[in-house]
Every structure is written in C-alpha cells, then in structure tokens.
Amino acid sequence: MSPGILSVKRLPQRAEAQMLPRTIPQEPGLIVVDATWGAITPIELAPGVRTVGELEVIEHIRAGLPLIDTRRGSFYREGTIPGARNIPHQRMAADSIDSINRGTVTVFFCNGPQCAATPEAIHTLLEEGHPADSILFYRGGIHDWVTLGLPLEMPASHD
C-alpha cells in the first residue's frame, strides 16, 4: 500500500451473499443491499475504456444504443436495465463478441462496484481486439441503478 493511504476494512462477508438489492415489501423506496460480497472494482478498468454513471446510461438508452448485461442468466431474468441484452461474462467468447458491433459504443454492466463480471468481460473484449473507445463501463450496475430508484425491466423469455 502506498504511503499516506489508509487501510480500509470492509464489513466481514456474510455466509450467504445477497448479490442483488431487494425491495422491502410495503415500503416503497426502501431497499436492502448486502455490502459485504465481492471485491471493489477500480473506476478505470483499462486505457480508453470510459466509466459512466446513471445519467450517461439513461442518455445511452434514450439514444437507442446497446447495453450488455454481463451477469449470469439467473440474475438477468430477475430484472435488468431497460433495453439491455444478456451476454454472461463467462460466455464472452468469439461467438458472443462477434454479435457486438465494434463500431457502436456499448454500455456494459453487472451487479455493481463489487462485481467482477463486467471487468472480466471487458478485459476479454480488449484481448480479442475490441476497440476500447467503443466500450462504456457502468460500474454502478444493478446495485446503484436500483438503489437510486431507477426501473428494472423483466427480459423477454427468449433471452
């Protein structure tokens, strides 16, 4: 650790991680999150890959541009950012990568700042020659999206 940087301890991990924020029944706007799972990801994943926040994601959606949810299908089916399609990070291989337009700026996201799915997917894309300037990393993911009261969409059954 660099001199002058404080060591920060996180809460101990729970025995059963709750990776998705959950609404509290009959309590609109209140959400339970598990702050103990995963490892915190950096803001900058790789040179040329831009990290974006919610307002940029909303503008991306309004512009009709693509979003890729890199979470496992089971998480995706519980709700995703409107308009997103699912390419699980572990399936980010040549066939999946070929379905992503290299010339179109695309937002990639997963469960949140402590989730490794999107960082892994983005590193795979870069290793396969995908241009960094066409990749946007929404680090906040579902965690921040839901905790800010933004809507989720239930994906069509064919996804």
Structural features, described:
- With 159 residues, the protein is α/β, with parallel strands linked by helices.
- The chain has a domain at 46-147: Rhodanese-like domain (Oxidized Rhodanese, domain 1), CATH 3.40.250.
- Helix content is 23%, strand content 13%.
- The chain contains five helices and seven strands.
- The chain has helices at residues 54-62, 73-76, 94-98, 117-127, 141-147, and strands at 22-23, 31-32, 50-52, 67-69, 85-86, 106-109, 135-138.
- The strands form two sheets. The protein has a five-stranded parallel β-sheet with strand order 3-7-6-4-5. A two-stranded antiparallel ribbon has the order 1-2.
- The longest helix is centred in the C-terminal third of the chain and has 11 residues, at 117-127.
Tell me the Rg in angstroms.
16 Å
* Tally of contiguous helical segments: 5
| Helix residue percentage | 10-25%
What's the CATH H-level homologous superfamily of one domain?
Rhodanese-like domain
**Strands ordered across the widest β-sheet:** 3-7-6-4-5
- Main sheet properties: 5 strands, parallel
What's the level 1 CATH class of one domain?
A: Alpha Beta
Order of helices and strands: EEEHEHEHEHEH
Strand content: 5-15%
What is the CATH T-level topology of one domain?
Oxidized Rhodanese, domain 1
The chain-level mean pLDDT equals 90
CATH architecture of one domain: 3-Layer(aba) Sandwich
Q: Tell me how many strands there are.
A: 7
N-to-C span:
43 Å
Low-confidence runs (pLDDT<50, min 5 residues)? none
Q: Note the overall shape.
A: globular
